[in-house]
Description:
This protein is of the alpha/beta class. The protein contains 13 helices and six strands.
Amino acid sequence: MYDAAVQNLIDELGRLPGVGPKSAQRIAFHILNADSSEMQKLTNAINTVKNTVSFCQICGNISETDQCAICRDERRTPTTLCVVEESKDVISIERTRSFHGRYHVLGGAINPLAGLTPEQLRIRELIARLADERIEEIILAMDPNLEGEATATYLSRLLVPLGVRVSRLASGLPVGGDLEYADEITLGRALEGRRIIAEGNRHQTENHAEAFTQAVAEDQERQVQNAPTPQPRPRWSGSMFEDLSEEHEDSPQQSTLNEPLLEKLSPETTESEGSSRPEEQDDSSSQRQSYQERLEELKKTPLRTPTPQIPPIPGRTYVNPWQ
Ligand code: ZN
């Protein structure tokens, strides 16, 4: 279609990434129409890059010297290693200013269709770098596409048995995005990789309550064991009537309410009344006998249930309201 030289230029430009046939043609004509000095600058720039810039011996990043600026920087923390596909990914992560570790550039991602196998990536160099004991974590920062996922899976299987912490960049919603417009895979990833803001203490509170109850029970048990044996209260024990009866009666066996009443009805009092009538004494003697028997029987069976013995609760002081 064009002269050989122009067609050759278009073909070469078309092999560049992101440049289609139309773009290649447009660039080629731009070069044809441009000043020779301008194009000489472009040629020089390409030559200089190809002659002077190489790859860092340590990380594989582009560098004009044997070691790149990041590898030479002693302030970078040596414990974290970020594995990326390309050198441009280093620039992207550096732009965040959030990462202060070191990098390892693989030089691509596993892509069998394009003929890129793990052996062609700088994976062997990565494993060799792990000989540095200071490395604690490896961040896999591959692209979130099929090739990137395959590479990350391959690397994680390789790295996990080596006892190093392996993490993967989170994927999810873009900042300033909208849930409504997020695709299912991105939203699903965002859900899976959600961040914990607060662990919540409901479960912990239940445990605390249980522990508290147990501690109180143990404390009470200990107090009961240490407390002196409860002495029977000489006075107030919960009954108003008992209290009053004990106050007036000196007999210690007085414990039931009915006895003072029975005492009043006892034959001794009737006897003193009946002494003025001696003629009725014979008749009343048998009556008195049966009465005495009945009284003795009644005394054996208390009419009132005895006061329940409540053990004192340790640590509490009781006030007798009748004192
Ligand atoms: Zn480097």
